[in-house]
Amino acid sequence: MSDSFRWPAGADPFRFLEALDSKRARTWVDEQNARTRAALRDDDGYRALTARLAQAYLPRERPVIPTRWREWAYDLWQDDQHPKGLWRRARWDDWRAGRPDWETLLDVDALGAQEGESWVFEQDAIRYPDGDRALVSLSPGGADAVVVREFDLVQRRFVDGGFTIDEPGHHTVGWIDRDTVYVSWDRGEAHATAAGYPYDARRWVRGTPLADAPIVFRGEPDDISAGAWFDPIDGRHVAWRSVDFFDAHAYRLTEAGEWARYDVPTHVEVGFWEGWLVLEPRLDWDCGGVRHAGGSLLAIREHAFLAGSREFTTLFAPQASTSACTWTHTRTMLIASWLDDVHNRTMLWTPRKGEGSDGGEGGEWTWDAHAFDWPRDAQIDVEPVESTLNDDVYVDVDTYLDPPECWLADLADRAADAQARRVLLDRPPVRFDAAGLVVRRANARSRDGTIVPYTLIGPRDAVEAANRDDGGDGGDGGTRVARPCLLSGYGGFAIPNLPGYSDALGIAWLERGGVAVFAHIRGGGEFGPRWHVDAQREHRQRSFDDFIAVAEDLIRTGVTTAAQLGIEGGSNGGLLVAACMVQRPELFGAVLCRVPLLDMRRYPKLHAGAAWLDEYGDPDDPHEGAALAAYSPYHRVRDGVVYPPLLLTTSTRDDRVHPAHARKMAARMHALGHERVWYWENTDGGHGSADDLERAESDAAEFGFLWAHLGPAPARG
C-alpha cells in the first residue's frame, strides 16, 4: 500500500452511528438486522445447524471441573435451563469422592429476570483466609464494564450495605481485610484515562461512602490504568501504573507507608512468589553487565534485589523458534511454559536453599528443573488447583481434531509411575466426524522474504498439497479437486494462534469437506517478542502481507481457489481480514469480520481504543498516521471495485471495540453500491457471546454464510 495516502478531508457522513443508542442509529441497526435475519437466519438449514451446535455447547450431562478455594469446590453450572449459570459450591473432598452435595449460591438467570438485566457472572474474589465473603462482579450483557456486590457465602445472599458499586464501569475491587478493600473506581469519563479506566486506588472502609474513601495511590491521566492490590499470603501491598498496553511501573508499600517503585524498565513485568521477584523483560534488557533477551524469565530474591544485587537466575532464555515464557506457580513449584515452533513446552522449577543455610535470607539458592512430559503432542495448559495448599494442577490438553481433555495431576509425585496416577476428569464426546482428517504444517514466503508458518486441517489429499511446487496435482497432471477453505488469523498484541478443538468448525465446516487453515503471522506471539514487534505500529502492513502470502500459497498449491477461499477474524483479526479484503479483493470468495476495528483514524476515541496506541500507532502523528491511513479499511474501501461477500458482526454491548467500526463500514460500503455486505449486531453479549445459546445462533449464521458462498457450486447458487 502507498504510504502517501492521508486522511480524507471533510466530515464523516456516518459519524452518527457512533452514538450507541441514538434513535437514528438504532433504526439503522434494526433495519440491517432485519435484512441479515432474512438472508441468514430464517431457513431450515440455519435452524438445524443451530440446534446441533446448541446440543454440543450445552450438553445435559457433563463433568464438573470446579475452581478450588481451600476446602471448597466452586462452579458456575450452565445448561439449557440456566444459560447464564448457577454459581454453586460443594466440599472439595466430596467432589473428589464423586458425591458432591452442591449448594446454589446465586442463580444468575433468576437474578437477571428479577432485576430486568441480562447479568453475566464475571468473577468472584473470596476473602482469604476465612472464605465467608466474596466480591462478585456482574456484567450487564457480557460487557467489560461490571457492577460489584459483596456476597455472604454463609447466608448465601448479597450483603445489605456491603461493598457495592451499582453503576457499571471498569472497576477493580480487592480485599485488604474483612472491613477494608482497595478499589479503582470508574467514576466516568471526567475521572478516567483516555482509554476509559480509573487511574487511582482508594482504601475503602466498610460503612463509609465510597466517594469519601481516601485515594492512596494515583497514576497519571495519560496512563492506561492504575490501581493497587493486597496479597494476604505474605502481607504485600502492590500498586501499578500501566503506561501503555504492554508496559507498567510496579510499586511496593514500604514500612514507612510510602510507595516505592521497583527499579526496572517499564517493559519488565514484575511478579512475586515466596520471597522471589520473577521478572519478564518484553524487550532486550541490559542490566548488571548482562544482556537478557526479551521473552526471558528471570528470578532473584527480593531482599537481594532491593539491596542492589542484579545477579538473576535465568529460568528461560528464548531461541529463534520459541515464544516468550509465561509462568504460574503451585505451593512449592514455579511452572514455566512457552512455545517451540508452535508446540507447547513446560518446565517445573523448584528453588532450594543450600545446605548449612540458617533458614533466613542469607545463603545460596539453586533451582532444580524438571521437564513436564505429556504422552501426546498437544497444546498443554498447566494451571494450579489451589496454590496456597499443594502442588495439584489441572492439565488441559487440546488439539484440533480430538475433544479437549482435563486431567488432575500432583506435580510433587515424581515416582516412575506418576503418570498412571493422573486422573482424567473430562473428555467430552466427539462432536464431529474427524475420520480421514489430518493436521499438517506448511510455510509461505511473505513479501519481504520472511517465512510464515501456517497449519492446515482437512482431508489428507487436500492438506498434503500445501507447499508443493506442482500446482497441487502431484506433478503428474492429476485431478485433485480444490476444496472450500477457511483461513483464520489474528496477528496482534503478541497473542499466538494456538491449537484448539472447535465444535463449530468441525460440525459446520470440516465435516462438509472444507479445509481450515490457521496462519501464524507476525504481530502474534508464536515466535517471541520480535515476531510481535516486527508488525507493531507503523509496521502493521507486514501482518497483512503475511496473511496474503498464506492465501496465495493455498491457491498456488491447489488446496483451494480464490472463489473458494474465505477468511475470518475477530477484533484485531477483524481488522486483518478487512484490510486484506480491501487490498486484495480478488484473492477471496467471502469474508467474515467479527467485532472489528476498521476506522483507524478514530479508533483511539472509541471505547478502549486509546489503550492500543502502542500497538497500532497514533493517527494524529504524521508518520504513524500515514501508515494507518494507508490501510484503514473504512477509508480505503472504494466504489467500482468488486469485493467478496462480507458479513460484519458486532454487539451493542461491546465496550471494548466500539460497534461503530462495523456499523460505519457496512453503511459506507452500501453507500458505495456494494450490496453483498451483511451486518448483524447482537443487542446482548460484549466482546463475545453472552451465553452458549446465543453463540450457537451466531455460529450457525456465520458458517451458513461462509458455506453458501464458498461451498460446492450448487450451494453457492
Question: How would you explain this protein's 3D organization?
Answer:
By secondary structure, the chain is of the alpha+beta class. Among the domains are: 26-54 and 443-716, Alpha/Beta hydrolase fold, catalytic domain (Rossmann fold, 3-Layer(aba) Sandwich), CATH 3.40.50.1820; 262-429, Prolyl oligopeptidase, N-terminal domain (Methylamine Dehydrogenase, Chain H, 7 Propeller). 21% of the residues lie in helices and 32% in strands. It contains 16 helices and 39 strands. The strands form nine sheets. Strands 32-33-35-34-36-37-38-39 form an eight-stranded mixed β-sheet, sandwiched between helices. Strands 5, 6, 7, 8 and 9 form a five-stranded antiparallel β-sheet that branches. Strands 1-2-3-4 form a four-stranded antiparallel β-sheet. α14 links the parallel β38 (646-651) and β39 (677-682). It is globular and about 75 Å long. The two termini are 34 Å apart. Mean pLDDT is 93; it is low at 474-478.
